[in-house]
Amino acid sequence: MWLETGLDEDDPIQPPQYLYDEGVKSGISAMLMKDQEEEEQYRLESKLKIMISWINYSLQAVEAAIAQCTGGFAPFFIIIQPQQLIPSDQQMFH
């Protein structure tokens, strides 16, 4: 397709539609845009899952450090449960 000049030896009068038909051209462009958007969505969802995993790991580390503290100090910013801070995958993607 990319290397064709548009002239076929069998039918020298009629070039392929993607060379002259605006509907076909816009259809090809729309399909390419749709594919790019799907790839971008997959990439962003993957990055989001990685970030959520990192945050959960960080929260567990903070909770473990707090559990080892003595003296009754409880940071004011750890008031609610981590499950309330970070939505599950089922809540995010549905």
Short description:
63% of the residues lie in helices and 0% in strands. By secondary structure, the chain is mainly α. The mean pLDDT is 77.
Protein architecture, described:
The chain is built from four helices and no strands. The model has no long low-confidence stretch (mean pLDDT 77). It has 94 residues and is mainly alpha-helical.
Q: Name the shape in a single word.
A: rod-shaped
Largest sheet: none
Q: Which structural class fits the helix and strand makeup?
A: mainly alpha
Distance between the termini: 39 Å
The run of helices and strands is HHHH
Rg of Cα set = 28 Å
The tally of strands reads: 0
Helical amount among residues, as a percent range?
Answer: 55-70%
The overall average pLDDT, rounded, is 77
The poorly predicted ranges are: none
Number of helices: 4
Strand content: under 5%
Task: Looking at this protein, list some descriptive labels.
mainly alpha; about 90 residues
Which secondary structure elements does this structure contain, and how are they paired or packed?
Elements (H helix, E strand, L loop, with lengths): L16 H4 L1 H47 L13 H4 L3 H4 L2
